[in-house]
Amino acid sequence: MPVLPDKLVRELTGIMGRERVFTAREDRLCYSYDGTFRQYLPDVVVKPGRTEEVARVLALANREGIPVHPRGAGTGLSGGSVPYGGGIALVLTDMNAIYELNREDMLARMGPGLVTAELHRAVEKEGLFYPPDPGSAESCTMGGNVAECAGGPRALKYGVTRDYILGLEVVLADGRVIHTGGRTVKNVTAYDLTRLFTGSEGTLGVITAITVRLIPRPRAVCTMLATFRDLETTGAAINAIMGAGVVPRTLEIMDQLAIKVVEKFSPCGLPQDAAAVLLIETDGDLEAAQREAGVVEAVLKKAGAAGIKMAANPAEAAELWRARKAVSPAVGRIKPTKISEDATVPRSKVPAMITRLGQIREQYHLDLVIFGHAGDGNLHPNILCNRKDADEMQRVEKAIAAIFQAALELGGTLSGEHGIGLLKAPFLRAELGDDGLAVVESIKRTLDPGNILNPGKVFPSAAGGK
Amino acid sequence: MPVLPDKLVRELTGIMGRERVFTAREDRLCYSYDGTFRQYLPDVVVKPGRTEEVARVLALANREGIPVHPRGAGTGLSGGSVPYGGGIALVLTDMNAIYELNREDMLARMGPGLVTAELHRAVEKEGLFYPPDPGSAESCTMGGNVAECAGGPRALKYGVTRDYILGLEVVLADGRVIHTGGRTVKNVTAYDLTRLFTGSEGTLGVITAITVRLIPRPRAVCTMLATFRDLETTGAAINAIMGAGVVPRTLEIMDQLAIKVVEKFSPCGLPQDAAAVLLIETDGDLEAAQREAGVVEAVLKKAGAAGIKMAANPAEAAELWRARKAVSPAVGRIKPTKISEDATVPRSKVPAMITRLGQIREQYHLDLVIFGHAGDGNLHPNILCNRKDADEMQRVEKAIAAIFQAALELGGTLSGEHGIGLLKAPFLRAELGDDGLAVVESIKRTLDPGNILNPGKVFPSAAGGK
User: Which of A452, B42, B92, B181 could anchor a disulfide with B194, C-beta 3.0 to 4.6 Å?
Assistant: First the structure.
């Protein structure tokens, strides 16, 4: 793909002014990557400030057949926002206002560029709560959260992004603007376009405004950390907790390698001989949170946990969380390339999946760290490697295929919360089957006949192989 | 539409046996209606017992261009399952098995013909909970619940059907069978087909198996009934409850006419001079349910409720519910035709909507009873009339249009939980706009190019006018 003709760049400048259109190589480099190791240079970067500008950019791109790659903060972990094949990087971070925060209707309306944690803080000040909390909440944007249907630890009890979206403003591939859903939780008027666009990874339309529902902020949270001497006991404990009639708000796991890496780079006092630790939170009314924490504690003891630390106050809880939050940055320091997967299995299959991941680690001689959301079966096996080591990368590729195969064999899915993007597109057929794939492809063709929206993503035919 | 040629009836018999294919007029009459006043005779009724039979019926119908109207128990309130234009009534009530009830993964898998209340009872025996509870739960089927995205009183706290569907087996218009979603709450692999089919009202595919997620059964419920002397106070109380940081599991309203009708036909001891009553439930752990009930009670008193009755035990709670559950049957006894609407507004607009409904009642001189789910803005204005009274029916038509206009003007939607079906199709454009309508129409054309699946429903172009 050649750099865009000057004429088109001038047209873009005409739409939104010179200060919102970038063609210098150093500017384009800034928007060439995401949270993966894939990198592609866009021909031009545009930063619209209003829906109308987005609409005019898409109308132009559709007319000229130019690829458009919508993106927010670029924290994605599946290559969903990298400008594969060049074209326009459509950066939505300037559309970041909270338009409305309505306590009575318990909803908020915002632009796609709003940082997720800023939404958290704004609504919590009002005694309200927006549960989805992806690991990158402090930097990722709500538009990206909707486009990928982000999850996070609290999804165990509260569900994922799709469960909180009431309505969307979407610019279609040809520049038309539609409004899906609305301001009510109950809405069954025609097809559920809101959830069709949620998780569509920028391939069906560009999200320019988001209405989310909010819930009352839980009044209390109890946090505990449990240590285990072997993985079997850990797995049994996870199942026992979920079988005890309690849904913790989070149930996070770190395996031995994750513990060691954390202790090496940002010591948290974790026992380095432990096979795994579980970080568990219950919430609700104080009495409910404490009762459920008591149930979990009893189950953990019975299941054979080697140690249980209950946080006595928010400061101690934050200290327990520090270890979990340190994993991702810490593993990034072992080797230059970190590949974070999110293959997900039914929760009863977590022990089996952990076993399979251990076998994959041995078979391909790789540094594979396991952590993630054990309670909903959404593990994050992270492979640490060096993308410049061709031999290692071959083993990595085989290991990734083996991880997906294991997840599907155990009744799971390729992706729990990161999306398919560029990296998992070659594997899509294995999960959807020929007919399922044909259906999603037909929807893509219907809504984006020119294939300008995020081309090369999600679909195996477009993914250019592995 | 003529009766199907014998050759095709024989082909249907070949697919599933003579005992599952019905052509006698009295059999066809049984499947000519639903919960509305619309009635159309199908040419043939088939009752498949397996997915493969459904697939072969659709392949045949698609080849021959025969309309197919999928249905369960026919309790729908928007004319979504009546065999408009004749063709095949595809009755799924025999596919009613629970295939799996999995405590560890907290999910259940079933056929579309399973009666909703039977699912409730089966999972509650295991300490689990399936929240959606449409008013017809004792007779409606899960397939219909998914096809219409059913709600019910408990949706206020727990959400609607779409929030509980993990995966679907769907037969496409041409007989291909696909599986959407899976067994995990977190699943972002390609587009959200699960929720595209949920609420698609039988126009995109036929649902032949359903996987739902379950939650732990709440340990305690507190039930109370509050009486009000005027509607303004009632509206203010509703807003005050929701603003107090409590989400009751139900917040139901009955207006004065609803109270009078109930007291006439099935006396429950409601105060007949009350302008409205609210039936409110809180749930959770006993302490949480009681604390929240206490908050609600205090808010009600402060807001000026004339009386509050708190149920001391389950028997008293059932007695309070008896009045609410008697409304629908009782209003049906006033006049021969009952039209139940479900226009929905943001909850802060409930008082305004009640005022508008009162004005509509006066303007068109109609018996209009208001009850429903005030907490989520999902009111059920019921118009009582006589379909044989042409003058009255003209006023009814105008009143219905006015109700929809009011809902949309207040930021609401045509349908909260009944679906668009036949009755609301003429109004769809007003809510979706031209471009939104074009998108849903394009999806319909893509997945059902021959327009055999439930033709005449949802889309205004096909609705044959009002």
Answer: B181
Task: Give the residue carrying structure tokens 């379909």.
Answer: B387
Contacts of A189 in chain B (CB under 8 A): 413-415, 420, 424, 428, 431-432
Can you give B413-444 as a three-state secondary structure string? ECCCCCCCCCCCHHHHHHHHHHHHHHHHHHHH
Give the residue from chain A lying closest to B150, CA to CA.
Answer: A188
**Strands of the sheet with B367-373, listed across from one edge:** B307-310, B220-228, B276-284, B250-255, B367-373, B378-385, B337-340
Residues of B in contact with A59 (CB under 8 A): none
- Check: CB of residue A237 under 8 Å from CB of residue A276: no
Residue B162: list chain A partners with CB under 8 A: 192, 195
- A7 burial class (0-12, 13-18, 19+ CB within 10 angstroms)? exposed
Same-domain check for residues B403 and B348: yes
Please tell me which of the candidates A148, A285, A373 has its beta carbon nearest to residue B288: A285
CATH number of the structural domain spanning residue A387: 3.30.70.2740
pLDDT in tens, B211-243: 999 999 999 999 999 999 998 899 889 989 988
At A324-362, the pLDDT tens digits run 888 888 888 889 999 999 989 998 899 899 999 999 999
Instruction: Using a CB–CB cutoff of 8 Å, tell me whether B102 touches chain A.
Output: yes
Burial B455-464 (b: 16+ CB within 10 A, else e): bbbbbbebbe
Nearest residue of chain A to residue B177 (CA atoms)? A435
Kindly tell me if the per-residue pLDDT of A447 is higher than 50: yes
Tell me what ipTM this predicted complex has.
0.96
Give yes or no for residue A463 having a pLDDT over 60.
no
Which distant-in-sequence residues (6+ apart) come within 8 Å of A242 by Cβ? A251, A347, A375, B104, B106
pLDDT in tens, B413-435: 999 999 999 999 999 999 999 99
What DSSP character marks residue B349?
G
Cα–Cα distance, A4 to B350 (Å, whole number): 53
Using the Cβ of B345 and the Cβ atoms of chain A, whether some distance falls under 8 Å is answered with yes
* Residue B96 resides in a domain: no
Do B320 and B248 reside in the same domain of the chain? Answer: yes
Choose one of B152, B186, B216: the last residue of a domain. Answer: B216
Q: Does A414 touch chain B (CB under 8 A)?
A: yes
Distances in whole angstroms, Cα of residue A293 to Cα of each of A244, A248, A297, A324, B202 = 11, 8, 6, 19, 44
Nearest to A190 among B102, B428, B442 (CB): B428
Measured in angstroms, the CA of A335 and the nearest CA of chain B are apart by 28
Residues of B in contact with A376 (CB under 8 A): 184-186
Cβ-contact B114, B97 below 8 angstroms: yes
| B225 and B325 together in one domain | yes
Q: Is residue A461 part of a domain?
A: no
Token code pair at residue A379: 């593990």
Three-class SS of B233-286: HHHHHHHHHHHCCCCCCEEEEEEHHHHHHHHHHCCCCCCCCCCEEEEEEEEECH
Question: Residue A157's domain spans which residues?
Answer: 106-216
CA–CA gap between residue B11 and residue B399 (Å, rounded) = 46
| d(C-alpha B200, C-alpha B198), whole Å | 6
Query: Is the Cβ pair B436, A217 closer than 8 Å?
Result: no
Chain B (242-301) residues lying within 8 Å, Cβ to Cβ, of chain A = 242-243, 245-247, 284-285, 287-288, 291
